[in-house]
Amino acid sequence: MNRNIFYFSLLSLAIAGCSTVNNKQAGGDFDYASQPEPQQLNIPSGLSAPEQPQTYVVRDDINRQGPIGEEVDVRAPSLVLPIAASSRIEGDSNQAKIWFDKVLEDKDLQVFIYQAIEEQLASDGVGIEVIDAENKIYESQWYNREKQSGFWLFEEVESTESLRFRYQFETKPHGRSVAVIVSLVDYMKTDQSGGSKEMNQLDKQRAEMAMLNEIVAQVDFKYRKQQRDNRLLRASQKLVTIGTNKLNEPTYIVEMELDLLWANMPIFFEDHGFKVADLNETKKIYYVDYEKPSISLWDKIWGDQQPIIELDDQRYQFVLSPNGENEEQTTVTIFDAQGNVLPNDKLEFIFPVMEQALSFRDTF
């Protein structure tokens, strides 16, 4: 016999032997299951019974109808994995159920989750059907799984499993929390010995949990994709421009609400050499002292230096105002120590640094 064919045959036998391992059973023998129950100690009359510690006593009121020995399924129950943002589980629930809280304000949460289910099933090559639109109940088409035996040209289908799942939504009255419940509604298995429509409880629970975890992973993927799209949009969007305020003075126009920009301005000041000396929150004015930051050799080596704003060292006023009727825009008008508005050419000169800084791209 050719040596390569011989080695190949041994490898095939080894693989076939490994595939017969049953991960549902405990290791070792099961002789304990056939051991007779010990007789109770008979104490002769006139003698005291010895003390019997209760630390390891085995109670007799147990389920005698359950599996014994080789029939015991030792696999641990599956768990719901709340890996998606703002997802949570109920500790006392035995259902394959998870709650999602609203993350994206511009998205309908239930529609967002339904789309995740639809996309997950589509990636598995399975469709989804509406069972009860009013009560938000949907079901998948059949998942078909084949188990094959043999090798290469001699493969044959040993068994086929088919499963269908139900997806039900629960929505809080405020609409900001939505639960998804997954249940196995139909099962069919066919093999060489016949067919069956029964699945043991542990396998059923594991199938429901596995399906729900696939949905949670898909929701998490959609969240991450949306966050990436938002970052790309923000990176390409012009968040700071040069214009005029309501007094027709040169100013920066920032795509941010007034109160939010007011709260974030201290971050800008701290990172770019400004120190807040005073402020008027009512009029939305910051009084700041500017000292051009010095860049050390180590900052240059490690790349930690912030871009320098080319302004004279003196006190400035940053006056924030809403940009007319547009509540999502704020004007930032800068006055020098003499109370003069920085002219348009100066705003344009420092714009490359100011645009990056006032958009807070590197902060959020």
Q: What general outline do the C-alpha atoms trace?
A: elongated
Strand segment count: 14
- Termini Cα gap: 69 Å
Please tally the helical runs, counting DSSP H or I stretches of 4 or more residues.
7
What is the N-to-C order of secondary-structure elements (H for helix, E for strand)? HEEHEEEEEEHEEHEEHEEHH
Q: From the alpha-carbon coordinates, what is the Rg to the nearest angstrom?
A: 35 Å
Helix content: 25-40%
* Low confidence ranges: 5-20
Structural class: alpha+beta
Percentage of residues in DSSP E strands:
25-35%
Q: Main sheet, how many strands, which sense, barrel?
A: 8 strands, antiparallel
If you average the pLDDT, what whole number results?
84
Task: Please characterize this protein's 3D structure.
Strands 1, 2, 3, 4, 5, 6, 7 and 8 form an eight-stranded antiparallel sheet that branches. Mean pLDDT is 84; it is low at 5-20. Helix 2 (109-123) crosses helix 3 (201-236). The protein has helices at residues 3-18, 109-123, 201-236, 258-271, 297-302, 344-349, 351-359; strands at 87-88, 96-101, 128-132, 137-140, 143-149, 156-171, 177-191, 194-196, 240-244, 250-254, 274-280, 285-290, 315-323, 326-335. The protein is an alpha+beta fold and 364 residues long. It has seven helices and 14 strands.
Question: How would the blueprint of this fold be written?
Answer:
Elements: H1 3-18, E1 87-88, E2 96-101, H2 109-123, E3 128-132, E4 137-140, E5 143-149, E6 156-171, E7 177-191, E8 194-196, H3 201-236, E9 240-244, E10 250-254, H4 258-271, E11 274-280, E12 285-290, H5 297-302, E13 315-323, E14 326-335, H6 344-349, H7 351-359
Helix pairs in contact: 2-3
